[in-house]
Inverse folding.
């Protein structure tokens, strides 16, 4: 081990208006290893990786690649130095083929710029064989599954001759088999002398695949540990600091009054694909029902069907005594459903509109926002001020646009909005995704309050600790079916994880 | 995996032969209707030549739209760019000659494209809004220039003819075969005659631009990068593609092609006149959508429009015979629906077929106004049947800003 | 507040200044003194008769722009306003010429018929969009051409047309006095009367402001325009909104020709003013979909259209005004975009600054 470290970060600090995203980061990545960087949502992992990939410049600190100090002005500079990045959100053109996606920007050409497709395909097939990342080079990307798409992303980076790969949360969208395949590929890459930087907050995965682990908390590096001598528990404590987010109140507030009864709910998608089948559950007043599952197994569809945004193929949805199966979204909301959507900016906010108009969104038929068929602007504004104060939304005024707020403050506004108007049922999809740690704790408190007030809460989350900590009942969704249930008082994240993959037979 | 490969290969094989089969079928149907109704103009060489001439300007506009939209910029300003092309060609053509006219017309169109690019790419203005403004601007500039430069607000002086390409022997043979009015054979002869009978040089150029576009956009690195800007600009950005540059080039090319279409109109007519484009820019855009943002489809769309327009201009009575073509097409569609066991739409379509048939049988001619609406109604009908299968570029019409994908 | 109004006015002011500059440069370049040309236009355009004409012209422009703006607020481009209003004016003229009822009733029926026809013509585009996924941009353009054909079909003797006395043209039957709306003299010393139905345009403007800004329906419509996905999640039935807003847009479009029809021409003929629908698009853009802004835009546009006539007298080609109008539209949309970006950045900076203050504890939370 005399070779210079593949990547050496020293004292990296990056500020954004109003926030210090990273400060005093120190990381050393040994060449030919899989190096994991773990940390909670909002801990600053993605900012750091964007710095390393040249998407922005650090305000302070130095980057050295293979012992040589570098300054990256753009991703192109990083690529030229052999650094490649696989983004969490795939950057692929659906309507182009695998080959086209991979070679774009570095096309092999014969004379007059004519694409040498054969050459490109041969090279891609060869690369695929070499690293165990085989994909049909002629297929359209839109026809590929998630796992294949990720292979394309990695091939894109390898095709450009990268020797250092950054993978940002690569497993978030994968099913377990795909995770296993990905890990095989990562080991293969390592065998052949490449360096992999692997960003994650899933500790079991990290311990499985990583040679070194760096922990980031609150925007800075807090520890560098050896995975062979560290337990998941220890890692978790390092990630969140001294206090683990312990599932505080275990006093049951669950009552006998059913609020939401879902029976035999089914949903059919394009090409008659079964997206949901035979979903049945009941949530009582004061109960939090958590839905666990690997992303893409029907969670989003379930929530949108209950909200009436998709039309169910069968089954009933009953709120209190009202069968609302055939109701519109609006009528469901008026009947007392609060909805914290998974994708804030797409479904929860009008980014160009002022906060007080966002206060009305989804409640534009209810007081204090309206009087009869007219908008009550003063009522809505007054209530927005109340929410801003009560839910600690950090904003200079209620007239700024929603786009100006940080993710956490946007989310607090949404939670405040959805909690007003006396809802009976609250649907929270990934309520703390992409928010900073402070806001995360605040939102958890708000959900606990809701439960204490006697609301029925449907919680969908990819964060197992969040699910276990907040839920009274847990159900596991797999390929559009509820396949298992668990008692959050006893279940461990590991057990839940295996149920999510269909491996365990828990009841 | 191998199964998938095999499937796509098979799909490609049928895809490459299907258009010819379809074209053959269309010819058979038209020939049949011509023989049955006696409406010789339906496939006469004159009609077909008019159809070609009328297809080209809007085909060029559509091609302009294709370049621009493949790079993700909706270009509804084609009409304005085309107007600039007609004027440029009229002015330069009447002053110096047809070739100079063509060059200046293309350049004027490109100037329109440049303005659209500045507004949409640099300033991020809504593409349709900018296009509407460009249309207005194109009209204003040309009207002003007409008065200032041509000293005539409505038309230019004469543009000399561009010259034609002479094919030996073949046209004569085809003409004599066509004159016999044999079933299918004569129709085919007329088609060939219409193509080979002294085509003008710029007609050949215009037709050649279709395969050239296909080649450049689908077979070169440049084209791949350009298309990637219309499909996933932020992905392209991460791979070092300069999205702004390709969008600019695409919209410039778009304007130049629209200008070509305009120049064609002016040179073909022998002079520029106010209102010469007649909305061909818009119809070209519709033809492009009809053609699913592809050159071959676009050519079919433009041809369809050019044909119905040419037929109604040359021989309004023959449009009546088109009703029978419509009946046959509808009957086939109904049969296909019923075969697919889609009973309700099938029956509705069947009833509709019967009504059109009744209309055909009960009337001897169509009123001029209905005839003049045929191309537009056809476009609308086709779009309403095909829109759901269309596949526009994924980022078409979206404003792109560097670094805005995060 | 003042700052916000200032910013809102900055964009159109900048754009107009730019348009004037471009026009001046062109005028100067072609050997005409720009300031004098503007002076002639101003003198001519502010004569009492011109002012009355400007207001009359602006009435149609205003209605057209409102019709377009209703769509714009929902991200719908109703380019078919032109066909909608001409068809509506024709049918309304036919009806008004044929009925003989009490004056007010006739006018009311005419107006309702015009709105219905406009709405129906727009409904075709709405249905095609909602049911078949056809972009309204293309379908409304096609429908404009088809409207031409329908108008030609209807406007022949024996259908809605009659031969006009003293000319070879065909028009609808002249509307009897009971179906007309008298004008009034707004401007002293003017021979030209202002349309009585200017009132209709004002009412439509107020209605637009009220419907979009003050009602639940308006909120739904604006929310859909800003983010369709968020609107769906908030309970808006987007398909229904598309249909309703296009119907309203078409209904308003139907009114465009009515002030002229009932106040001046009394008959629809081939001479009836055309192209107002396209002017409406430009005016809506100039006025930023704001009812007051559109009023200024419509008056400005109409003023320019009137005042340009004088330029011929001085051997300046009046088409220069079209260039000015087009430049103004293009630069105004650019200017609005620039101001919007500036505003967004300003908001983000404000938020950041107040957060820093919160942290340092100078402002109570």
């Amino acid at each position: 081990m005399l070779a210079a470290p593949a990547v050496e970060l020293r004292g990296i600090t990056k500020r954004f208006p109003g926030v210090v995203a990273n400060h005093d980061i120190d990381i050393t990545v040994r060449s030919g290893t899989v190096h994991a960087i773990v940390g909670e949502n909002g801990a600053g992992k993605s900012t750091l990786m964007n710095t390393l990939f040249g998407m922005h410049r650090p305000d302070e600190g130095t980057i050295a690649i293979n012992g040589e100090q570098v300054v990256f002005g753009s991703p192109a500079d990083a690529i030229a130095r052999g650094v490649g990045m696989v983004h969490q959100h795939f950057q692929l053109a659906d309507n182009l083929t695998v080959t086209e996606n991979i070679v774009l920007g570095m096309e092999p050409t014969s004379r007059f710029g004519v694409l040498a497709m054969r050459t490109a395909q041969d090279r891609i097939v060869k690369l695929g064989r070499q690293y165990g990342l085989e994909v049909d080079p002629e297929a359209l990307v839109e026809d590929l599954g998630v796992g294949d798409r990720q292979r394309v992303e990695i091939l894109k980076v390898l095709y450009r001759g990268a020797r250092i790969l950054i993978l940002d949360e690569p497993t978030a969208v994968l099913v377990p088999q795909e995770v296993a395949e990905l890990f095989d590929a990562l080991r293969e890459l390592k065998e052949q002398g490449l360096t992999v930087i692997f960003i994650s907050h899933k500790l079991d995965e990290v311990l499985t695949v990583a040679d070194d682990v760096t922990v980031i908390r609150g925007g800075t590096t807090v520890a560098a540990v050896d995975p062979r001598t560290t337990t998941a528990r220890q890692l978790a404590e390092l990630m969140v600091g001294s206090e683990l987010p312990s599932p505080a109140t275990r006093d049951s507030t669950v009552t006998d009054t059913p609020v939401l009864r879902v029976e035999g709910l089914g949903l059919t998608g394009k090409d008659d694909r079964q997206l949901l089948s035979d979903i049945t559950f009941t949530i009582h007043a004061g109960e939090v029902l958590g839905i666990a599952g690997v992303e893409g197994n029907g969670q989003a569809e379930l929530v949108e069907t209950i909200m009436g945004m998709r039309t169910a193929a069968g089954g009933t949805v009953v709120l209190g005594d009202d069968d609302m199966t055939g109701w519109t979204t609006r009528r469901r909301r008026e009947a007392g459903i609060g909805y914290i959507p998974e994708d804030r900016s797409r479904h929860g906010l009008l980014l160009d509109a002022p906060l007080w108009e966002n206060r009305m969104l989804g409640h534009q038929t209810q007081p204090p926002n309206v009087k009869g068929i007219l908008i009550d602007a003063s009522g809505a504004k007054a209530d927005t001020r109340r929410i801003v104060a009560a839910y600690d939304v950090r904003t200079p005024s209620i007239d700024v646009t929603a786009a100006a707020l940080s993710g956490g403050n946007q989310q607090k506004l949404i939670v405040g909005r959805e909690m007003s108007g006396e809802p009976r049922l609250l649907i929270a999809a990934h309520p703390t995704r992409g928010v900073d740690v402070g806001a995360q704790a605040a939102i958890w408190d708000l959900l606990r309050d809701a439960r204490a007030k006697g609301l029925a809460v449907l919680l969908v989350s990819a964060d197992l600790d969040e699910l276990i900590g907040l839920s009274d009942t847990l159900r596991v969704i797999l390929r559009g079916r509820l396949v298992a249930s668990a008692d959050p008082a006893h279940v461990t994240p590991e057990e839940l994880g295996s149920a999510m993959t269909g491996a365990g037979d828990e009841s | 995996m191998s199964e998938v490969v095999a499937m796509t290969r098979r799909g490609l094989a049928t895809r490459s032969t299907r258009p010819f089969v379809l074209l053959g079928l269309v010819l058979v149907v038209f020939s049949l209707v011509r023989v049955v109704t006696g409406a010789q103009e339906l496939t006469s060489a004159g009609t077909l030549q008019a159809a070609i001439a009328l297809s080209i300007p809007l085909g060029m506009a559509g091609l302009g739209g294709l370049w621009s939209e493949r790079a993700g910029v909706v270009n509804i300003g084609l009409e304005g760019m085309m107007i600039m092309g007609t004027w440029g060609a009229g002015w330069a053509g009447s002053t110096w000659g047809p070739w100079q006219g063509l060059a200046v017309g293309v350049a004027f169109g490109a100037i329109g494209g440049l303005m659209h690019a500045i507004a949409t790419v640099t300033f991020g203005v809504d593409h349709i809004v900018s296009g509407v403004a460009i249309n207005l601007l194109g009209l204003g500039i040309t009207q002003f220039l007409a008065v200032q430069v041509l000293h005539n607000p409505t038309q230019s002086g004469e543009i000399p003819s561009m010259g034609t390409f002479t094919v030996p022997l073949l046209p004569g043979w085809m003409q004599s075969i066509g004159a016999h009015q044999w079933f299918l054979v004569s129709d085919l002869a007329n088609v060939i005659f219409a193509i080979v009978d002294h085509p003008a040089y710029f007609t050949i150029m215009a037709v050649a631009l279709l395969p050239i576009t296909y080649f450049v956009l689908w077979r070169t690195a440049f084209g791949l990068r350009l298309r990637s800007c219309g499909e996933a600009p932020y992905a392209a950005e991460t791979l070092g593609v300069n999205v702004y540059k390709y969008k600019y080039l695409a919209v410039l090319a778009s304007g130049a092609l629209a200008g070509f279409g305009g120049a064609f109109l002016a040179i073909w007519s022998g002079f520029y006149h106010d209102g010469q484009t007649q909305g061909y820019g818009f119809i070209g855009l519709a033809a492009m959508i009809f053609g699913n943002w592809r050159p071959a489809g676009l050519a079919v769309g433009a041809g369809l429009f050019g044909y119905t327009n040419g037929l109604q201009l040359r021989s309004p009575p023959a449009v009546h015979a088109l009703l029978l073509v419509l009946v046959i097409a509808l009957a086939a569609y109904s049969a296909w629906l019923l075969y697919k066991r889609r009973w309700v739409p099938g029956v509705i379509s069947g009833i509709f077929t019967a009504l059109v048939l009744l209309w055909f049988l009960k009337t001897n001619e169509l009123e001029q106004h209905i005839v003049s609406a045929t191309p537009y109604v056809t476009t609308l009908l086709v779009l309403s049947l095909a829109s759901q299968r269309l596949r526009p570029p994924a980022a078409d019409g979206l404003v792109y800003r560097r670094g805005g994908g995060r | 507040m003042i700052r916000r109004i200032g910013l809102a006015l900055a964009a159109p002011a900048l754009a107009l200044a730019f348009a004037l500059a471009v026009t001046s440069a062109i005028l100067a370049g072609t050997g005409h003194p720009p300031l004098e040309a503007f002076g002639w236009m101003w003198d001519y355009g502010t004569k009492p008769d011109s002012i009355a004409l400007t207001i009359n012209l602006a009435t149609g422009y205003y209605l057209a722009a409102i019709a377009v703006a209703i769509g714009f607020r929902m991200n719908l481009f109703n380019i078919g306003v032109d066909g909608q209003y001409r068809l509506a004016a024709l049918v309304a003229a036919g009806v008004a010429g044929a009925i003989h009822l009490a004056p007010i009733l006739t006018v009311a029926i005419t107006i309702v018929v015009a709105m219905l026809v406009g709405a129906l013509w727009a409904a075709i585009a709405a249905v095609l969009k909602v049911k078949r996924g056809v972009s309204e941009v293309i379908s409304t353009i096609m429908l404009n051409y088809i409207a031409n054909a329908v108008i030609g079909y209807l406007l022949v003797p024996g259908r809605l047309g009659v031969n006009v006395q003293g000319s070879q043209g065909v028009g609808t039957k002249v509307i009897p006095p009971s179906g007309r709306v008298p004008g009034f003299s707004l401007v002293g010393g003017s021979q030209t009367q202002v349309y009585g139905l200017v009132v209709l345009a004002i009412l439509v403007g107020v209605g637009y402001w009220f419907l979009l800004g003050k009602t639940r329906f308006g909120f739904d419509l604006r929310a859909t325009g800003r983010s369709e996905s968020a609107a769906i999640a908030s309970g808006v039935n987007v398909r229904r909104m598309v249909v309703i807003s296009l119907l309203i847009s078409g209904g308003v479009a139907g009114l465009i020709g009515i002030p002229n029809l009932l106040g001046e021409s009394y008959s629809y003929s081939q001479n009836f003013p055309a192209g107002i629908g396209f002017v409406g698009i430009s005016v809506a853009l100039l006025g930023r979909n704001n009812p007051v802004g559109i009023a200024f835009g419509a008056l400005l546009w109409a003023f320019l259209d009137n005042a340009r006539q004088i330029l011929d007298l001085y051997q300046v080609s009046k088409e220069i005004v079209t260039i000015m109008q087009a430049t103004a539209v293009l630069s105004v949309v650019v200017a609005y975009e620039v101001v919007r970006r500036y505003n967004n950045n300003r908001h983000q900076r404000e938020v950041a600054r107040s957060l820093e203050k919160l942290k340092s504890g100078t402002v109570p939370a």
